[in-house]
Amino acid sequence: MKNFALIGAAGYIAPRHLRAIKDTNNRLVAAYDTFDSVGIMDSFFPESSFFVEQELFDRHCTKLKGTDKKIDYVSICTPNYLHDAHMRYGLRLGADVICEKPLVLNPWNVDALQEVEKETGHNIYTILQLRLHQSIIELKEKVDKGPKDKIYDVDLTYITSRGNWYYTSWKGDVHKSGGIATNIGVHFYDMLSWVFGDVKKNIVHVYTHDRAAGYLEFEKARIRYFLSINAENLPENAVEGEKRTFRTIKIDGEEFEFSKGFTELHTESYKNILAGNGFGIEDARTAINIVYDIRHAEPLGLKGDYHPLAKLSLSNHPFGW
Questions:
Q1: pTM over 0.85
Q2: What is the end-to-end Cα distance of the chain in Å, rounded?
Q3: Among residues 212, 216, 232, which one has the least CA distance to residue 224?
Q4: Contact by Cβ (8 Å): 218, 197
Q5: Which of these, 19, 128, 218, 225, is most buried using a 10 Å CB contact count?
Q6: At a CB cut-off of 8 Å and minimum separation 6, what does 185 contact?
Q7: Sheet order of strands, 49-51 included
Q8: Per-residue pLDDT tens for 7-38?
Q9: What domains lie within the chain, and their CATH numbers?
Q10: What angle do CA 99, 103, 104 make, to 5 degrees?
């Protein structure tokens, strides 16, 4: 049994990490968040210590060294811009780290973190759960075994509506979240590069507070994408569960079905990490480069090969009010 500490226990994604720790028969001994709305912990680890101050959390974790509760892994579910600092903390605590994506916002931070890994002798792992999705594994196998000169035409559409709270939160601050492409797109870009190879072109057509549309060319695919958090962009009857969400990938004009099978992928990620087969820093580099380049590109507008939904009219107010 391994001992875990969790940073960001009140975060949206934290319950998946809590479940993964529990389902892999490990235990959470300490958790930290500046917010104290963490009743979810009762469903998984009610006996875990919890802190709302970094200093007290650090003091507690440090005191556990040399005991049977010594921290083996630090799991990180904090806002994107804090990942770098919290990963460094975990490594220097003497633990391995499991961090949500994106690991960092800037490509040069990847190199710096690899240096800290070398200094501490501990490792950083990231959650790239789409690589573990059975349909996507089968797609990669099909592409790998297919004709060497085959180039696929792909349309990616992902609309996941968010309310006005989004713009007030850290997610609405591009300096903290990395913006729309990073926030809701980074796992798709990782998956696409994993399946279709190295990036050859990265063109942005539209990039605003609530959407991103562009063209990515990989070794084996030409990809048009449209990402949005604006409910006005949803097609009719687009509802998944309780959320208004629309997600589709078309490959050479045919729908690629991967809407199911997401629920246990964090647990599968933890199983792989604990078995020594997790995704490390280098695995995350390509997607970090892609979203960084998108964020800093000059949008071309409706020129060239753009996604059809790029033509949708923009919101009247930058915050939808």
A1: yes
A2: 50
A3: 216
A4: yes
A5: 225
A6: 158, 212, 225, 227, 291
A7: 49-51, 27-32, 3-7, 73-76, 96-99, 124-126, 279-280
A8: 999 999 999 999 999 999 999 999 999 999 99
A9: 3-126 (3.40.50.720), 130-260+281-311 (3.30.360.10)
A10: 145
